[in-house]
């Protein structure tokens, strides 16, 4: 019973702390915008094989494997956050320099708009109403969201979101160009929520996880109509933060 308890504890930690795709979040948990769109489901598989150590050693092995996965994943997140903080420091210096030439580069105002956009865009996705997110999305991303949401309606799916949280939002690359419409900022978004899809007729879960999940995403903002709007979402494993912070996306 004691070994079983340890296994359950490790499993719970893995489910809560690992940054895995959340299908019920904005954009469907896949890429969006200029990076294209993708979607797919994650799954678990189990393999049974013969072993000589008996039940005790098998349980110990499972605990060890869970521990290795847990520490590897959490270690990866720690490295990412450390790199993001360094990139944030560089980005803030760049934004302070750009602010001398354009009044759209005030860091506090940008941070406020990014945080507001995060929650409003998630609500847009939950409502399945692209017009709700119109003030916060570029025209290109609005069209992509609208296409995805219409297809979900054809399939008879609805979004369920609960306990939407923003753990951090850090600028990791900023670029200024002649003409404000070409200015852009990349943010590393660290969020957490419960998000999944249900069949509108049966109310059964068809995609996603009913448990809360954390995630990292890269959000690109561009300046349109006197505010910063979301243009693109990419997943953590689709970008190299070192390359991004150097401007080589």
UniProtKB/TrEMBL annotation:
<protein>
    <submittedName>
        <fullName>39S ribosomal protein L45</fullName>
    </submittedName>
</protein>
<dbReference type="InterPro" id="IPR007379">
    <property type="entry name" value="Tim44-like_dom"/>
</dbReference>
<dbReference type="GO" id="GO:0005840">
    <property type="term" value="C:ribosome"/>
</dbReference>
<feature type="domain" description="Tim44-like">
    <location>
        <begin position="91"/>
        <end position="235"/>
    </location>
</feature>
<keyword id="KW-0472">Membrane</keyword>
<keyword id="KW-0687">Ribonucleoprotein</keyword>
<keyword id="KW-0689">Ribosomal protein</keyword>
<keyword id="KW-0812">Transmembrane</keyword>
<dbReference type="InterPro" id="IPR032710">
    <property type="entry name" value="NTF2-like_dom_sf"/>
</dbReference>
<dbReference type="Pfam" id="PF04280">
    <property type="entry name" value="Tim44"/>
</dbReference>
<feature type="transmembrane region" description="Helical">
    <location>
        <begin position="59"/>
        <end position="81"/>
    </location>
</feature>
<keyword id="KW-1133">Transmembrane helix</keyword>
């Amino acid at each position: 019973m004691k070994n079983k308890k340890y296994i359950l504890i490790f499993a719970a930690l893995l489910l809560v702390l690992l940054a895995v795709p959340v299908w019920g979040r904005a954009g469907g948990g896949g890429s969006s915008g200029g990076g294209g769109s993708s979607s797919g489901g994650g799954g678990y598989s189990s393999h049974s094989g013969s072993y000589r150590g008996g039940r005790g050693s098998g349980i110990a092995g499972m605990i060890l494997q869970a521990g290795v996965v847990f520490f590897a994943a959490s270690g990866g997140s720690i490295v990412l956050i450390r790199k993001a903080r360094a990139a944030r420091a560089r980005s803030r210096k760049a934004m302070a320099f750009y602010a001398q030439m354009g009044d759209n580069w005030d860091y506090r105002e940008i941070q406020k708009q990014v945080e507001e956009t995060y929650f409003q865009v998630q609500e847009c996705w939950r409502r399945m109403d692209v017009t709700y997110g119109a003030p916060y999305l570029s025209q290109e991303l609005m069209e992509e969201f609208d296409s995805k949401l219409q297809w979900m309606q054809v399939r008879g799916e609805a979004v369920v979101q609960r306990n939407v949280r923003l753990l951090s939002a850090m600028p990791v690359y900023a670029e200024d160009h002649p003409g404000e419409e070409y200015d852009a900022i990349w943010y590393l978004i660290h969020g957490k929520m419960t998000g999944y899809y249900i069949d509108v007729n049966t109310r059964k879960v068809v995609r996603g996880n009913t448990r809360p999940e954390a995630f990292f995403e890269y959000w690109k903002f561009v300046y349109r109509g006197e505010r910063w709007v979301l243009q693109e979402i990419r997943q953590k494993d689709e970008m190299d933060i070192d390359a991004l912070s150097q401007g080589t996306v």
